[in-house]
Automatic annotation (TrEMBL):
Family in the record: Belongs to the polysaccharide lyase 9 family.
A GO term from the CC aspect: extracellular region
Domain Pel9A-like right handed beta-helix region: 54-98
Organism name: Microscilla sp. PRE1
Origin: domain of life: Bacteria
One Pfam family it belongs to: Pel9A-like_beta_helix
Transmembrane segments: none
Keywords on record: Calcium, Lyase, Metal-binding, Plasmid, Secreted, Signal
Localization per record: Secreted
Name the UniProt record assigns to this protein: Pel9A-like right handed beta-helix region domain-containing protein
GO MF annotations, alphabetized: carbon-oxygen lyase activity, acting on polysaccharides; metal ion binding
Keyword Lipoprotein attributed: no
């Protein structure tokens, strides 16, 4: 009926032993009325649905093919955001995450989805792209290759946290 590891196994076993030693008492006489069984069934379903919040994990050494567990975390916050449901929590481990995160759902009133840093970890989320392979171009002008989608625009450029001027055609001037 119940596996030996189930919390009610020992209780059911004790009741069964008690009933075997008594006249006119059997396990079938101990059945609950149908209404109690129905309410118990509905309650179990409700608890299963409402209490099914899942913890997901993201780490810099993760992989988006992983299940998002603490032992096998996702690589990106975006991947976690794509699977989160109401009540779920996403724990983000230490690191700098350069991505734009757009959750598919926001949860429900009183049961939101939550993004938080892993306890004790420092997390930075930047909606920017790191530009690398800078090379001198002319004088004090540097350039770097960048491959962007057609609808992507540079809105700002920062070097060591300081805003820089972005070269434009026709040099940002209107005549």
């Amino acid at each position: 009926m119940f596996s030996p590891r189930h919390p009610l196994h020992k209780t059911i076993h004790l009741i069964h032993q008690f009933c075997k030693n008594k006249d006119n008492i059997s396990m079938s006489n101990l059945r609950a009325p149908k209404s109690v069984r129905f309410i118990s069934f509905v309650g179990a379903i409700f608890i299963a649905l409402c209490g099914s919040a899942t913890d997901y994990y993201v780490a810099k050494d993760g992989n988006d093919e992983n299940p998002g567990t603490e032992e096998a975390p996702f690589l990106t916050i975006s991947k976690a955001a794509s699977v989160l449901q109401a009540g779920d929590v996403c724990y983000i481990k230490a690191g700098i995450y350069r991505e734009t995160v757009e959750p598919d759902v926001s949860g429900v009133s009183g049961n939101p989805i939550t993004f938080t840093s892993y306890p004790g970890d420092s997390v930075v989320v930047l909606g920017t792209t790191k530009v690398t392979r800078w090379e001198p171009y002319q004088g004090s002008i540097y350039r770097a290759p960048a491959s962007l989608a057609l609808d992507t625009r540079f809105r700002a450029l920062y070097v060591n946290g300081k805003a820089m001027d972005i070269a434009r055609w026709p040099n940002g001037m209107v005549s």
